[in-house]
Design brief:
0% strand, 410 residues, Growth Hormone, Chain: A, single chain, mainly alpha
């Protein structure tokens, strides 16, 4: 491992200018490069948000399936994304970020067509469910390819000095897409029918592809020797574990805040979700340059402390407003975690390995979301819903300890 680390350190010491020229005209500004990419990402995550808003109702009400099948249909996409992270990183680094992104977008078109077939076969439940499951798997693979390609593409075109800003704006596009896509799909399904939702997914994939079709690709260094994926995971484990523990607070809010409000008879929990999302996005908008300007370690440390306080506030809240304030602080703290630790992660590898490093790093986020829900559910069963957010507080403090430990190793 020391040998790998030494090689990686030598490679990552290369300045961005030593990477083969991307062919981007020098006069192109950051916004001219990044706007097409975040437009593409926004369209991609609109499709994901739309399925989150339509698939549960379609499977449960139209196909008359149980809650377990609904959960399986939703979870398959995340599982497929996690399991194809290594593949997406390899394609991005060896075939090009543009190709990876566009292959992912094309797969969204395929998924949209299969979703539409499932709606057409809604009277034949078994066939329709099989088509939904297939579409969810393809949609998950497409997410892995398209987003790994988009992140690597943006960082490669603007340079590593602005990598945190690239990740920040991509994150805004991702969460905004989900936040807007879900309610739009719910409205469309009720007013027009689920087939129109699935048709719009195909249209959005076309828009995503067109947004970046004229953008310059990154060159690929075919001669570069690339270590196996598991060794890249080893290089970014410190940052990945920090992200994983920081993500637990987000998972606890998305999974259980509505149940906490119901148990406490605090009314509609929508404001909790809205404030979390609003503070998440506003923090990214106004402080997007902080990871690059002040360093990923400092920003991540402050962010974790803010998030920990937010989780503690929810866990000890006696009123709805206290819980909502805790959601706001959690959104604010969690907002810059991915770009802050991501800046540190990509410095561990050479430019030619950026896609693989981002895939390995993102896999920790996928794994965290997959495990946090069941663990939080067990805690709620043993104790109560407030205890979930004390679990989130402890997780943030563990992430702080991981940061301290990894910083001392540098």
């Amino acid at each position: 491992m020391n040998t790998i680390q030494n090689v990686s350190d030598k490679q990552s010491s290369l300045a961005p200018e030593t990477f083969p020229s991307s062919g981007v005209p020098a006069e192109k500004t950051f916004s001219q490069i990044i706007i097409p990419i975040i437009t593409s990402v926004f369209a991609i995550y609109l499709t994901i948000g739309m399925t989150l808003g339509s698939i549960p109702g379609f499977v449960k009400n139209d196909l008359q399936a149980g809650s377990l099948i609904v959960g399986l249909a939703i979870g398959l996409q995340s599982l497929a994304t996690l399991l194809t992270r290594a593949y997406a990183g390899r394609i991005t680094d060896t075939k090009g970020a543009k190709r990876s992104n566009h292959h992912g977008v094309l797969l969204i078109m395929v998924a949209g067509l299969i979703y539409m077939l499932s709606a057409a076969f809604s009277q034949q439940t078994t066939i329709a469910l099989a088509l939904v499951f297939l579409a969810r798997i393809i949609h998950g693979i497409s997410e892995s390819l398209s987003i790994t390609g988009a992140l690597t593409w943006g960082i490669g075109l603007v340079g590593t000095s602005k990598s945190g800003k690239v990740m920040t704006w991509n994150g805004i596009a991702m969460y905004a897409g989900i936040a807007i896509g879900a309610p739009v799909a719910i409205w469309m399904k009720g007013a027009l029918g689920v087939s129109y939702v699935f048709g719009l997914i195909i249209l959005l994939s076309v828009i995503s592809w067109l947004a970046t079709v004229k953008l310059e690709d990154l060159p690929v260094d075919a001669a570069h020797v690339r270590p196996p994926f598991y060794k890249v995971i080893g290089l970014v484990t410190g940052q990945g574990l920090g992200l994983a523990f920081a993500s637990i607070g987000f998972a606890c809010i998305s999974s259980f805040i509505s149940l906490l409000f119901t148990e406490k008879d605090w009314g509609n929990p929508s404001l909790a979700f809205i404030t979390f999302g609003s503070f998440y996005i506003l923090t990214r908008v106004f402080f997007s340059s902080f990871p690059d300007k002040y360093g990923g370690y400092r920003v991540a440390l402050v962010s974790l402390l803010v998030e920990a306080f937010g989780q503690l506030l929810i866990g000890t809240s006696s009123t709805a407003m206290m819980a909502i304030a805790g959601c706001s602080l959690t959104g604010m703290g969690f907002s810059l975690m991915f770009p802050s630790l991501g800046v540190l992660a990509i410095k561990k590898v050479s430019p030619q390995m950026r896609g693989t490093a981002l895939s390995a790093y993102s896999a920790f986020f996928d794994l965290s979301l997959g495990l946090a829900g069941p663990i939080a559910g067990l805690i709620a069963g043993w104790f109560n819903y407030e205890a979930i957010y004390l679990f989130g507080t402890v997780s943030c403090l563990l992430a702080v300890m991981i940061l301290f430990f990894n910083n001392k190793k540098r």
